[in-house]
Amino acid sequence: MHHLENLQLQNYKQSTTHNTEYNLLLASSLLTKILADFLFGFYLLTWLLNHATNHSVPRINQGNKTVECCK
Fold first, then answer.
1. Dihedral of the alpha carbons of 30, 34, 40, 45, in degrees to the nearest 10
2. Which three-class secondary structure state does DSSP give residue 39?
3. How high is the pLDDT of residue 13?
4. DSSP letter at 1?
5. pLDDT at 42
6. What's the rounded Cα separation, in Å, for the pair 61 and 68?
7. Hey, what's the torsion of the CAs at 45, 48, 52, 53, to 10 degrees?
8. DSSP H or E run through 14
9. Which positions ≥6 away from 45 have C-beta within 8 Å?
């Protein structure tokens, strides 16, 4: 009976180790995804703000020149 208990305990420890490794893999994958999503969102926000600024600045400058010409 003692041998059977040792086998069960060894199997339990082995399965717990595998579960821990699996959980660490899942956690690192989740953190990688969160970081990638954050960086991609930051990139999109930067691109959007640059695009909006570059699109509106020439129009504002053109408007200022028109007002100066008409004075």
1. 160
2. helix
3. 73
4. -
5. 97
6. 11
7. 50
8. helix 2-70
9. none
DSSP states of 60-71 as a string?
HHHHHHHHHHH-
User: How many Cα atoms are found within 13 Å in the side-chain-facing hemisphere of 7?
Assistant: 4
Q: Which two tokens stand for residue 24?
A: 């660490």
Q: Given this model, what pLDDT does residue 51 score?
A: 87
- pTM of structure: 0.54
- The conformational region for residue 63 under phi > 0 = left, psi -120 to 50 = alpha, else beta, is alpha
Angle value at C-alpha 60, between 70 and 54, nearest 5 degrees? 150
Taking the chain, what is the end-to-end CA distance rounded to the nearest angstrom? 104
Mean pLDDT, residues 19-35 taken together: 93
